[in-house]
């Protein structure tokens, strides 16, 4: 038995056997649990929080950014949400700080002003690549860059109901504290409640690769140097920095205009940086706005603090940011903060070393020059680290693929990683971390488990035929090729 020393379980009271146990109900865990349970496996989904959805619900990041590949389970969930009044909408860029008006001034100095656009449909949200940059290609951005925004509580409730309808058992407010393994296979998980669960297969969908760490997988952290993967944009020496975190806050229209008081005796200036960060400001279907400072805190600073202390500091920074917006831009004075997300949105922590590590070379090669035969999803988000030294944002020329081997930790037989902690370099993670991509990793992991479980003698994941997995994913309308097929276009516009 391998335990996290910070968590000691109570005396075990029960043992349950499943085909698959998924740990973490973020985007990856949702994709994995839905995919496996609807194909008939007995699935247990374990989540440490009360809400299903991870960053999309608990972290308030209730936005799916534009990009290829979100065509499988993400589209299925969208179809449920669009039948609920006020639950979901498609957005377009209205104004941006890098775009100039006819007087040569920034259209929107605070950052990005992103609004609900009733003229757009889900298929319009499925492309990003092709622009030189947001600043240089305004017309392209306005034509192609559309995303999905949804109400986080409705999203969480809807996904939970979908899981229950497929027969997936859910344990919320539950923490895993240890694993038992035999050779290269996990046999049991030990819960803080004292319960023990066993399964034939396990999927780690935690944002830190926690189960993989307990298993003994080799982990990666920070920015690798050029010599590790030969990435052109990597630093010359390794740097102990990771993508920053955001604390989302929500503002609601009010009839009485004014500037809210600055609480906690906070200063008017930005005390943690040279100036207040830019923000992505996205309209909800009901007219409220989601405000995301980019970022609120560096990833390394966040990991140095307790969750409680990090949350409080991020909240103070968000309040100071809001005071800055109201003081300097009159249009914000007709709004009030209505709530803060329950936890900061985490973009990156640890990453697992898998059978293959996705790198910048994959991102810049694209599908036309990648040689992998086991691609299980595609993506095209920019390389975009937040809150790190020498930050850069570089757009992708064409979609690239993520191999199934990125989900298989080295020397494991019945364990997959389907989250932002999958086997990516720091630069690759800055592109491939988005929610719908993670959900597609989960969908691939869930389908792979079904195929492995239906084979003789609990086949190890590494021996699974990539072609069989890809064929099944295509049947479920997962996008693996570019340009998009007519069949897939018809499915998305039916």
Biggest sheet descriptor: 8 strands, mixed
The dominant shape is globular
- The radius of gyration over CA amounts to 22 Å
* Low-confidence segments: 5-15
Q: Assign the CATH architecture of the largest domain.
A: 3-Layer(bba) Sandwich
The percent of residues in helical segments reads 25-40%
Mean pLDDT: 95
Number of domains: 2
N-to-C CA distance: 50 Å
How much strand content do the residues show? 15-25%
CATH class of the largest domain: Alpha Beta
SSE order and pairing:
Blueprint: E1 2-3, E2 15-23, H1 27-37, E3 43-46, E4 63-64, H2 73-81, E5 88-96, E6 111-116, H3 138-144, E7 146-150, H4 152-165, E8 169-171, E9 176-182, E10 185-191, E11 196-204, H5 210-215, E12 219-220, H6 226-229, E13 249-253, E14 279-283, E15 289-293, H7 299-304, H8 307-328, E16 335-340, E17 351-352, H9 360-365, E18 375-379, E19 400-403, E20 415-417, H10 426-432, H11 435-453, H12 466-475, H13 486-493
Parallel strand pairs: 2-3, 2-11, 3-8, 6-14, 11-20
Antiparallel strand pairs: 1-9, 4-7, 5-6, 5-7, 9-10, 10-11, 12-17, 13-15, 13-16, 14-15, 18-19
Helix pairs in contact: 1-11, 11-12
Please give a structural write-up.
With 494 residues, the protein is an alpha+beta fold. The protein has two domains: 2-89 and 151-237 and 350-493, 3-Layer(bba) Sandwich (FAD/NAD(P)-binding domain); 249-340, no CATH class. Helices cover 26% and strands 20% of the residues. It contains 13 helices and 20 strands. The protein has helices at residues 27-37, 73-81, 138-144, 152-165, 210-215, 226-229, 299-304, 307-328, 360-365, 426-432, 435-453, 466-475, 486-493, and strands at residues 2-3, 15-23, 43-46, 63-64, 88-96, 111-116, 146-150, 169-171, 176-182, 185-191, 196-204, 219-220, 249-253, 279-283, 289-293, 335-340, 351-352, 375-379, 400-403, 415-417. Strands 1, 2, 3, 8, 9, 10, 11 and 20 form an eight-stranded mixed sheet that branches. α1 (27-37) packs parallel to α11 and α11 packs across α12 (466-475). The protein is globular and about 70 Å long. The relative contact order is 0.18.
């Amino acid at each position: 038995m391998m335990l996290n020393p910070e968590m000691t379980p109570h005396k075990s009271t029960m043992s349950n056997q499943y085909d698959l146990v998924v740990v973490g109900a973020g985007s990856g865990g949702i994709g994995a649990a839905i995919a496996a349970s609807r194909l008939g496996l007995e699935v247990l989904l374990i989540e440490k929080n009360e809400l299903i959805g991870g960053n999309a619900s608990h972290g308030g990041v209730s936005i799916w950014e534009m990009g290829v590949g979100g065509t499988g389970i993400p589209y299925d969930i969208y179809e449920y949400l669009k039948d609920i009044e006020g639950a979901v909408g498609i957005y377009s860029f209205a104004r941006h700080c890098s775009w100039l008006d006819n007087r040569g001034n920034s259209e929107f100095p605070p950052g990005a002003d992103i609004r609900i656009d009733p003229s757009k449909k889900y298929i319009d949200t499925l492309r990003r690549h092709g622009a030189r940059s947001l600043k240089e290609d305004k017309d392209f951005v306005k034509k192609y860059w559309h995303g999905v925004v949804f109400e986080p509580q409705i999203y969480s409730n809807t996904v939970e109901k979908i899981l229950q309808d497929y027969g997936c058992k859910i344990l919320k407010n539950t923490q895993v504290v240890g694993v038992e393994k035999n050779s290269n296979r996990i046999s049991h998980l030990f819960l803080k409640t004292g319960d023990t669960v066993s399964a034939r297969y396990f999927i780690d969908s935690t944002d830190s690769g926690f189960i993989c760490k307990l298993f003994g997988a080799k982990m990666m952290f920070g920015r690798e140097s050029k010599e590790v993967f030969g990435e052109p944009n990597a630093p010359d020496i390794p740097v102990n920095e990771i993508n920053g975190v955001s604390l989302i806050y929500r503002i609601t229209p009010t009839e009485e205009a004014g500037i809210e008081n600055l609480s906690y005796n906070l200063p008017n200036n930005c005390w943690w940086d040279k100036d207040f960060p830019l923000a992505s400001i996205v309209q909800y279907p009901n007219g409220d706005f989601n405000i995301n400072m980019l970022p609120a805190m560096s990833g390394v600073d966040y990991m140095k603090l307790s969750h409680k202390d990090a949350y409080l500091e991020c909240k103070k920074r968000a309040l100071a940011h809001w005071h800055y917006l109201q003081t300097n831009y009159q249009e914000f004075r007709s709004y009030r903060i209505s709530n803060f997300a329950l936890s900061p949105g985490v973009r990156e922590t640890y990453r697992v070393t898998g059978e293959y590590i996705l790198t910048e070379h994959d991102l810049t090669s694209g599908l036309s020059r990648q040689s992998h035969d086991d691609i299980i999803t595609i993506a095209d988000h920019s390389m975009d680290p937040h809150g790190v030294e020498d930050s850069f944002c570089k757009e992708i020329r064409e979609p690239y693929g993520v191999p199934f081997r990125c989900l298989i930790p080295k020397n494991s037989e019945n364990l997959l990683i389907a989250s932002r902690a999958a086997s990516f370099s720091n630069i690759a993670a800055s592109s491939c971390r988005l929610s719908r991509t993670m959900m597609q990793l989960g969908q691939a992991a869930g389908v792979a488990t079904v195929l492995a479980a239906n084979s003789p003698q609990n086949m190890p994941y590494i021996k699974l035929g990539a072609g069989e997995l890809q064929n099944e994913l295509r049947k479920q309308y997962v996008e693996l090729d570019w340009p998009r097929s007519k069949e897939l276009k018809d499915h998305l516009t039916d």
